[in-house]
Amino acid sequence: MKQLSILGSTGSIGCNAVWVARKFPDRFRVRALAAKDKISILSEQIEALSPDIAVVIDEQTAGALRALLPAGCRTEILFGETGYNAAATMTGVDQVVVAMVGAAGLMPTLAAIDASKDVALANKETLVMAGAVVMGRAAEKGVRILPIDSEHSAIFQCMTGHRRQDLDKIILTASGGPFLSRPRSDFETIGVEEALKHPTWSMGPKISIDSATLMNKGLEVIEAKWLFDLSHEQIDVLVHPQSVIHSMVSFRDGAVLAQLGVPDMKGAIAYALSHPGRLDLSQPSPDFAGIGTFTFEAPDFEKFPCLALAFEAIKAGETMPAVLNAANEVAVSAFLNKQLAFSKIPDLIGRVMQRHQVSSHSGLDDILNADAWARDVAEELVPEI
Asked: Closest Cα partner for 43 from 24, 18, 20, 26?
């Protein structure tokens, strides 16, 4: 039986990971759960799974969580950095699911790797910020990093059984988000509620906004570079609104392999947890006759400049991807709080990137310093844009 720790258990990915673990109690035992402050969901997960520990953001939230739990509950409630580290490094845990949102996932991921835990990674920001550091440590520890993002899971599945030297390039597919057909001139009036309504995927607020701007695809490009040891020239993006082909791999003989499935994250999560086996999820295959036609188009970099900014960051390398990510997190938060127009999200990110002097060093401290610097600059610029 595989012992799991699920970080970010109350988010969209985390809840689906909990669903998989509960569906296969003979295969998985959840030893630790970690969330931020959604204690209603977390308390239900604790009652269902009886983990050894559960972690929240601070002491006050921990007290509120304890008050929700029934008398006699044996789960130890921890909080803060110490608690997250405990969940990531817990003795006996075989695999850590990292489903935390944003830069918050980096340090727990590194802690899990240093504790020789395999990582099922849904937090793309970890590799965007510090891909060389994370992958280097994983190699040193002999730790497997298995992708949970549907696109990277698709690439992983398509490459399995094939020689790495035969790969030509990968093709990441994108749904195009809710504004694929919306004229760029109308972006000024886009509101929060509209941007949160993704046409095919059910996701949390931050990822939903990133999908609407196509920054999510940009972050996935950077993540793919590190996961699969690629140059940016080996990564293409193709808009596929049906979201059935999750991504493709092109080989040097011209053959292309694609991984298809219904747009549901449970499949990718289950594959990361059960690899190299597959679990009987009782999910349907795509209704190909009903779908009828798959469509594809090249992304519009002028309409969605966040994707172009991500390629600029990957070309600059070093600390620039961390700056891109930090500025984007501030911009998305400002938009969700109605402090920044949707159309101004890429403007803010671009201005922060322009001010950044790429460090000649890209160790962890340099990355964390660049992240903090970018957040400060972005916060200062929000009122001006």
From this structure: 18
Return per-residue pLDDT of the chain as tens, 385 residues. 999 999 999 999 999 999 999 999 999 999 999 999 999 999 999 999 999 999 999 999 999 999 999 998 999 999 999 999 999 999 999 999 999 988 889 999 999 999 999 999 999 999 999 999 999 999 999 999 999 999 999 999 999 999 999 999 999 999 999 999 999 999 999 999 999 987 777 778 998 999 999 999 999 999 999 999 999 999 999 999 999 999 999 999 999 999 999 999 999 999 999 999 999 999 899 999 999 999 999 999 999 999 999 999 999 999 999 999 999 999 999 999 999 999 999 999 999 999 999 977 779 999 999 999 999 999 999 999 8
Cβ burial 226-253 (10 Å sphere, 16+ → b, else e): bbbebeeeebebbbbbbbbbbbbbbbee
Predicted TM-score (pTM) of this structure: 0.93
Q: HEC profile for 37-50?
A: CCHHHHHHHHHHHC
Tell me the residue ranges of DSSP E strands in 14-124: 28-34, 53-56, 76-79, 95-98, 118-121
What are the angstrom distances between the C-alpha of 88 and each of 12, 146, 313?
19, 16, 29
Q: How many CB atoms lie within 10 A of CB 17?
A: 30
Residue that has been written with the tokens 């992958």 in this structure: 135
Is-cis flag, bond preceding 276, omega within 30? yes
